[in-house]
């Protein structure tokens, strides 16, 4: 009997088995879709899997099941999902304190970089900045005179010219008077200083400090050697003095021109400046500007009055104590009064030193008493009454601002540091109040 029909029969039986298994698989997938995925491989009522082998199933069915699972072309069954542990957002994983410190840190770095760039720019145009600032301070003193003359019917150009000329003439006369007094009394002062040094030497020898003549001679010898060793430095400083004079004259001219334009056209310059501000911030800046100008004007006028009172009373005191050059010393006291705290100490110390080397220890002590008394009256009576609360700055802020201004721009920086701090304080307070009004 031929073997071909048997082979064909087995092939047909195999194909029939494959067809049945495919039908069962399709029925299983349809039942899973219809049940909404309830139970892995089961129907909606939790019935048995179509291919599951029950207790009463035949061995053929079990073999068909294993064959289906091992068949290379069989459709894969459902793969269980792998649940991975969830990871938090990196920002939420950082501690709150560290996040706050980082936020504040990079903002501080930006501010520090901005301030550093501004300071570099100011240092490169230091003469221009100081000249314009001095013009602002002078304008704050002279502007009320221009306004008063304008109210009386004087044309603004003429009022500006008269006020500026009068102001600069007065300042020039003060400088000339101080120079004249120093030149007139320099010879007498040098003789008095020499006599005072001799008296101080005799007093030290007779004092209970046990100072010997050899020690005094050694100190004098050291001073002479220091002067001779630094002759080159002194000479170079003298040569640099020519450059300083040229820069001073340039600064004076810039200050005069700036003062003239500020007195004549100050409002229009301010309106033009407002156009450079973003439109959203323009109302707040426009409200803060007049308040800042009021603060600056009050500070300058009050400082002039206080400095004038200090100069008059201390000058009268050292005049009646027969201290030489009392009038030039009084002018120095007036000028140094524009440097808060530090200027009073320096000018008072200068008066005491002149009294010590010219009139002796007792006169120096009396001069010191006069200086301290006037300065105490100034600090506790004059400044609170004249300057008022509008320009009150904490003493620590005054000392730090004067020191910073002196390190950045010398004496000019020390003079403008405190009014700059006072104006900045007023502007910040005004902007904060404006923000609260808008929020309310």
Automatic annotation (TrEMBL):
Output compositional bias ranges, type Gly residues.
36-45
Kindly indicate whether the keyword Electron transport belongs to this entry. no
Listed A to Z, the keywords are: Cell membrane, Membrane, Transmembrane, Transmembrane helix, Transport
Q: Where is the composition biased (Basic and acidic residues)?
A: 58-67
- Tell me the GO BP annotations in alphabetical order: transmembrane transport
> Where is region (Disordered) located?
23-86
Q: Provide the transmembrane region boundaries.
A: 158-178, 242-264, 298-320, 326-346, 353-377, 397-428
Q: Where is the composition biased (Low complexity)?
A: 71-83
Write out the GO cellular component annotations: plasma membrane
Pfam families in the record: AI-2E_transport
Q: What is its main location?
A: membrane
The protein's location, in the record's own words, is:
Cell membrane
List the membrane topology term(s). Multi-pass membrane protein
Q: Which family does it belong to?
A: Belongs to the autoinducer-2 exporter (AI-2E) (TC 2.A.86) family.
- The identity of this protein, by name, is AI-2E family transporter
């Amino acid at each position: 009997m031929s073997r071909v029909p048997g082979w064909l029969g087995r092939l047909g039986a195999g194909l029939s088995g494959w067809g049945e298994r495919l039908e069962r698989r399709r029925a299983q997938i349809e039942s899973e879709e219809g049940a909404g995925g309830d139970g892995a491989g089961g129907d909606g009522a939790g019935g048995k899997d179509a291919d599951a082998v029950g207790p009463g199933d035949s061995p053929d069915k079990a073999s068909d099941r294993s064959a289906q699972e091992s068949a290379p072309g069989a459709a894969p069954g459902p793969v269980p999902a792998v649940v991975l542990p969830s990871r938090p957002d990196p920002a939420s994983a950082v501690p709150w304190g560290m996040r706050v410190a980082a936020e504040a840190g990079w903002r501080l770095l930006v501010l520090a970089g901005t301030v550093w760039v501004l300071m570099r720019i100011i240092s490169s145009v230091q003469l221009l900045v100081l000249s314009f600032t001095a013009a602002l301070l002078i304008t704050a003193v002279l502007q009320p005179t221009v306004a008063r003359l304008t109210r009386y019917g004087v044309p603004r150009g003429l009022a500006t010219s008269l006020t500026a000329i009068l102001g600069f003439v007065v300042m020039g006369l003060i400088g000339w008077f101080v120079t004249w007094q120093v030149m007139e009394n320099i010879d007498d002062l040098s003789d008095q200083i020499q006599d005072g040094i001799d008296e101080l030497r005799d007093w030290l020898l007779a004092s209970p400090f046990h100072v010997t003549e050899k020690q005094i001679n050694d100190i004098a010898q050291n001073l002479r050697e220091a002067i001779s060793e630094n002759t080159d430095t002194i000479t170079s400083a003298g040569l640099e003095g020519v450059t300083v004079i040229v820069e001073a004259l340039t600064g004076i001219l810039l200050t005069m021109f700036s003062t003239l334009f500020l007195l004549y056209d100050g409002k229009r310059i301010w309106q033009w400046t407002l156009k450079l501000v973003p439109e959203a911030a323009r109302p707040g800046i426009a409200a803060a500007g007049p308040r800042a100008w009021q603060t600056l004007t009050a500070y300058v006028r009050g400082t002039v009055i206080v400095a004038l009172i200090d100069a008059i009373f201390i000058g009268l005191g050292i005049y009646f104590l027969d201290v030489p050059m009392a009038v030039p010393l009084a002018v120095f006291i007036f000028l140094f009064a524009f440097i808060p705290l530090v200027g009073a100490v320096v000018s008072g110390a200068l008066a005491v030193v002149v009294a010590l080397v010219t009139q002796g220890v007792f006169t120096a002590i009396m001069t010191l008493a006069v200086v301290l008394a006037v300065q105490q009256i100034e600090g506790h009576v004059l400044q609170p009454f004249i300057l008022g609360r509008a320009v009150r700055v904490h003493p620590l802020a005054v000392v730090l601002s004067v020191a910073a201004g002196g390190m950045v721009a010398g004496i000019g920086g020390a003079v403008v540091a405190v009014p700059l701090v006072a104006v900045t304080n007023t502007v910040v307070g005004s902007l904060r109040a404006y923000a609260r009004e808008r929020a309310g």
